Amino acid sequence: MSKLQTTETLDALSRNPPVERVLAVFDNETERLVAEYALHSFDLETFKRHFAVEDDYDPLMYNVYPVSPKDAEFVSNHLDEEVAFDFDRNAYFVECSEAR
Q1: DSSP structure class, residue 58
Q2: Domains contained in the chain, number
Q3: Beta bridge partners of 1
Q4: Looking at the domain assignment, is residue 2 inside a domain?
Q5: Does residue 92 sit in helix, strand or coil?
Q6: Where are any strands of DSSP class E within the chain?
């Protein structure tokens, strides 16, 4: 990341409200939200690398990112509680929302 990009990202962070990141779980059949798990050890740069997020696309990872079976272990390492992933029954997403 260039010095200009870093400065722009820091400026954006200072203007935006605090956010929280969660693993959102949706039932595949009903598409209803069934659970949310806080990603307490969310590190923006680590998640951007893992999910191949380009700085010019979504520098602060505000968009929703689907979690596939290959992502389950990575995401699990950033949760405080254990999640039993069941991709046949549920869809999983890393989501961002304004901190409560």
Answers
A1: -
A2: 1
A3: none
A4: no
A5: strand
A6: 19-27, 33-38, 65-67, 90-98
> What's the mean per-residue pLDDT of the chain?
87
pLDDT at residue 56, rounded to an integer: 86
Domain for residue 8, yes or no?
no
What residues contact residue 12 under an 8 Å CB cut-off, 6+ apart? 59, 60
In this structure, is residue 54 part of a structural domain? yes
> 3-state class of 6 per DSSP?
helix
Residues 52-86: pLDDT tens digits? 998 888 999 999 999 999 999 999 999 989 999 99
Q: How far apart are CA 73 and CA 2, in angstroms?
A: 31
User: Binning pLDDT at 50, 70 and 90, where does residue 14 land?
Assistant: low
The domain spanning residue 43 has which CATH number?
3.10.50.20
Q: Where does 1-100 have alpha helices with state H? A: 3-15, 44-50, 72-76
Mean pLDDT value across residues 3-14: 49
Q: What domain range is 58 assigned to?
A: 18-98
Q: What are phi and psi of 76, to 5 degrees?
A: -55, -35
